[in-house]
TrEMBL record:
Region (Disordered) location: 1-64
Record-given protein name: RsmB/NOP family class I SAM-dependent RNA methyltransferase
Family annotation (CDD domains): AdoMet_MTases (cd02440)
Active-site residues annotated for this sequence: 441
Keywords: Methyltransferase, RNA-binding, S-adenosyl-L-methionine, Transferase
Keyword Disulfide bond in record: no
UniProt record similarity statement: Belongs to the class I-like SAM-binding methyltransferase superfamily. RsmB/NOP family.
Domain SAM-dependent MTase RsmB/NOP-type: 224-502
A single GO BP: methylation
Length: 502
């Protein structure tokens, strides 16, 4: 791809397998036990009023646009693997839903998708059949109701009656009786009262407890806990951070946009990245510098791992490679820094449309569609190589509300094999004395330390202390790697290893 048209390039494209909610283990509670009758242990029944509000008369159900949109989004996620954060804006625009209704629809859909692991455990306690035996359209409507009851300030009677109307309109009046019965039982307790009932005690089963309490698949909880050195309380803080919507992080590409320009557009300077800023509100696409690809939306850790690669001192520094460049977040920043230094970036991605996005994100770089495992370049041709490897993405779960239920632990052997092959090629691509950054947006030990350990065991490369190149960032771990965390840094959980070729 050449650099014609680059400035004004069109930038508009910007199974619950593996222990998903239906498959998660509950903590030794008897589903058929006393809770079904609404007599379980727990505190006062502060939500008792919902029972009254939940009984709908025979009148016509009311169509609520926000709840219908939230419901349709959940069905699209379930039925056709839609990405919630991509589909929601389209859905709202098509239906001309704006303002508070749009905010409500988004909160209900995203909150329910995130929380449904916990909600299914509660539904199981309040139903005569397990969630996996409930018709998925009905189950999604009930989950939306549970979210409103237990995680929003919507009055219980309104949450129940709106859900029953939704079920009557979208599923049928027969199922609405079942939904009503379940929701009335759910409404008898607050979330704080439900959790000790549905989650196993943390002392007996820390992973099971955290999985239910923070609505994550158990295998992900175990992997994150291992990456945090077994610290259960810190794992809880991480899972809580995963349940928060991330702030919108921006990067001002150096030499093309100043931080002041982003601040003038309403952003606040970031804590660590010298080029980073956070947008508290508003549409980042409306910022002129972003429309012109001089700035971009980019996680702060993603900026910092790219900057760390540029900070390692080198003698002779002209040729840089980004082996997995699409959609171009890191390539956009590397290209800007390379241009300032008189170096030249080559970006590659195996997928055409992602290579095209990298091309749109850069101004001077050459971008090619190429499979990194079959290199289109000579060995030893580069001074700096970025390998931002394909991975499970366990460090970016907060970005997509449904992502945690889509990840599959069975993908790990295949991914780690690819990561090893790509890292081998990266080490071949860099000249002796040159440096490789191995990056994943996953902290999973099999994708991070294990891969680097295997590829450096033969002494081919020296592992640098990556933290030394990020002196402004505390809490990156014991080294020699740098590990970012959402709960510590407010960023994705990015992993960085810096390797100098011997
Ligand atoms: C984690 S993403 C890279 C993100 C990118 N560096 C950024 O900052 O925007 C991984 C990329 O690797 C690409 N990829 C996967 N297998 C590849 C291969 N064998 N060769 C080159 N690229 C590959 C994917 O298409 C994907 O775009």
């Amino acid at each position: 791809m050449n650099s014609d048209n680059r400035g004004g390039r069109n930038r508009s494209e910007q199974n619950r397998a593996g222990g998903g909610p239906a498959g998660q283990r509950r903590g030794g509670q008897d589903r058929a036990g006393q809770d079904r009758a609404g007599q379980g242990r727990g505190g006062p029944q502060r939500r008792g009023g919902a029972g009254q509000g939940g009984r709908r008369g025979p009148g016509k159900p009311v169509r609520d646009e926000a709840r219908n949109a939230a419901y349709d989004l959940m069905r699209a996620v379930d039925e056709r693997d839609a990405y919630a954060n991509l589909l929601m804006p389209t859905l709202l625009r098509q239906r001309k839903i704006g303002g508070r209704d749009a905010a409500l629809a988004t909160e209900l859909a995203y909150g329910t998708l995130r929380g449904l692991g916990t909600y299914d455990e509660i539904i199981a306690m309040c139903s005569d059949r397990p969630p996996e035996e409930v018709d998925p359209p009905l189950l999604d409507a009930i989950r939306l109701g549970v979210h409103q009851l237990l995680r929003t300030r919507i009055p219980a009677h309104a949450a129940v009656s709106a859900t029953i109307d939704l079920v009557r309109l979208r599923v049928g009046s027969g199922p609405s009786r079942y939904a009503n019965a379940v929701l009335r039982k759910v409404a008898t307790r607050t979330m704080e009262e439900w959790l000790p009932i549905v989650a196993p005690p943390r002392e007996d089963d820390p992973v099971g407890n955290l999985a239910v309490s923070y609505s994550h698949p158990a295998w992900i909880v175990a992997a994150l806990r291992d990456a945090l050195g077994g610290d259960v309380e810190e794992t809880a803080a991480l899972l809580a951070a995963d349940n928060d919507r991330p702030r919108v992080a921006l990067v001002a590409r150096p030499g093309r946009c100043s931080l002041d320009e982003l601040v003038a557009a309403g952003a606040e300077p970031a804590a660590y990245s010298p080029y980073g800023a956070y947008l508290r509100e508003g549409d980042p696409g409306a910022i002129q510098a972003i429309g012109e690809a001089r700035a971009a939306v980019q996680d702060e850790a993603s900026q910092l791992v790219a900057l760390a690669l540029t900070r390692v001192p080198l003698e002779g520094d002209a040729r840089w490679l980004d082996m997995c460049a699409g959609p171009g977040g890191k390539a956009g920043l590397l290209d800007a820094v390379a241009t300032q230094r008189g170096a030249r970036l080559l970006g590659a991605d195996v997928q055409y449309h992602r290579a095209r996005l990298a091309w749109q994100a850069t101004a001077e770089a050459k971008i090619v569609v190429a499979d990194g495992t079959e290199p289109a370049w000579r060995p030893g041709a580069f001074d700096r190589v970025m390998l931002d490897a394909p991975c499970t993405g366990l460090g970016a779960l907060r970005r997509r509300p449904e992502a945690r239920w889509r990840r599959d632990p069975r993908s790990i052997p295949e991914l780690t094999a690819l990561q090893r092959r790509l890292l081998g090629v990266a080490l071949d691509a860099v000249r002796p004395g040159g440096v490789v950054a191995y990056v994943t947006c996953s902290p999973h030990l099999a994708e991070t330390r294990a891969v680097v350990g295997d590829l450096t065991g033969d002494g081919r490369a020296e592992i640098l202390d990556a933290r030394e190149y990020l002196p402004e960032v505390p809490g990156l771990g014991d080294g020699p790697y740098a590990q970012f965390w959402p709960h510590r840094h407010g960023t994705d959980a990015m992993f960085l290893a810096l390797l100098r070729r011997r």
